[in-house]
Write a structure and sequence with these properties.
Mean pLDDT: 94
Number of helices: 4
Low-confidence stretches: none
Largest sheet: 11 strands, mixed
Distance between the termini: 38 Å
Structural class: mainly beta
Strand content: 35-45%
Order of helices and strands: HEEEEHEEHEEEEEEEEEEHEEEEEE
Helix content: under 10%
Number of strands: 22
Length: about 350
């Protein structure tokens, strides 16, 4: 399902979920530390066509100058989406990572599918459902209350078009010693791979050798890869360790590159080049260098894909105490009073 095909639907009714309450004037929902709240739910048939949200906490608030600034709220606010009554989330990822940057940092970039645009976070990935959906947010921060502004637009339909898939997003993170495969997805089922966003941070300064790792893509549980690339930055349509720096394009880009601090965030979406599979899909970046030449790094990734039915995302959040394992968090806040 892509943006072009969503435009062909001419029947149905436009609907919305929002945190705005006209009677009270409240625009946000508050999620205390450790709490999990459903903020959108329905039992109908339709397609989520737009998802937008934002929240403070990662920047200095001119309206509350004593409020703490902690960018890790972007990693510790978790979004989960359930489709068609599935008891497990098909989408499970931190806010920052889901929207494309996993360094606990906001970076302005735009694409047709998702992005971060001047303070907001958005997704236009079509999300079909036949027997309802539920979206919930969980606040894993130990002390800070998450204050979320939220709008979700969806089209209510009598029935879905034939052969329409269910959207999934799987998040993975950890510390990597350099030599093992960096796995992005390990999916069982029939569908297509729609893309990924990957953020990497080297332990050593001025060290980008992790970009030497080409992609290996295995389809339908084959033991040999069907697709093999020439380098990690090559998969993201760059070259020479993204020699000319940050850029933003429709289907690929580098929202963040800091060579001194060994930090890179990358995204690529498969549209006309979507990768089809009948029973399974596995993707990993594997560095051909000898292990003694490789350096440790922290990473996080989100894989976006569609399956013929809703099922549990191929990875779970895992141990929450490890979510904010990073070597460094940059201070990129700036004065911005409207």
């Amino acid at each position: 399902m892509d943006l072009q095909s969503i435009c062909t639907i001419t029947s149905g009714s436009s609907r919305q979920f929002t945190t705005f309450e006209p009677d009270t004037g409240n625009k946000t929902v508050l999620i205390p530390p450790g709490k999990r709240i459903t903020i959108a739910q329905c039992r109908d048939t339709g397609i989520v066509t737009r998802l937008w949200m934002t929240m403070p906490g990662w920047f200095w608030r001119h309206w509350d100058t004593d409020a703490p600034v902690d960018p890790t709220v972007l990693r510790l606010t978790i979004m989960r989406i359930y489709f068609d009554g599935c008891e497990y989330p098909s989408v499970e990822a931190p806010i920052g990572d889901f929207f494309g940057v996993g360094h606990c940092e906001y970076r302005h970039f735009t694409s047709p599918y998702l992005g971060m645009s001047s303070g907001g976070f958005y997704s236009y990935f079509p999300m079909p459902f036949e027997h309802g959906f539920r979206l919930e947010l969980e606040n894993l921060h130990a002390t800070e209350t998450a204050e979320v502004f939220f709008n979700l637009n969806w089209t209510q339909l009598d029935k879905l078009p034939e052969d329409i898939g269910r959207f999934h997003c799987a998040f993975c993170h950890g510390e990597h010693l350099g030599g093992d495969p960096l796995e992005i997805a390990d999916i069982n089922g029939k569908g297509h791979f729609a893309g990924c966003a990957v953020s990497i941070q080297g332990k050593d300064l001025n060290e980008l050798s992790f970009l030497e790792a080409p992609e290996y893509i295995y389809l339908d549980h084959e033991t040999e890869p069907t697709i093999v690339g020439t380098g990690l930055e090559d998969y993201f349509n760059g070259g020479w360790y993204f020699r000319n720096g940050e850029f933003c394009a429709q289907t690929h880009g580098v929202p963040l590159k800091d060579p001194l601090r060994s930090m890179v965030s990358m995204y690529r979406f498969h549209d006309e080049d979507r990768i089809l599979f009948r029973s399974g899909f596995r993707m990993a970046f594997i560095n051909p260098w000898k292990k003694e030449r490789l350096k440790p790094y922290c990473y996080s990734s989100t894989a976006y894909y569609y399956l013929d039915k809703a099922q549990k995302a191929c990875y779970s959040i895992g141990e929450t105490s490890e979510l904010t394992r990073l070597y460094r968090v940059r201070d990129v806040d700036f004065q911005a009073i409207p």
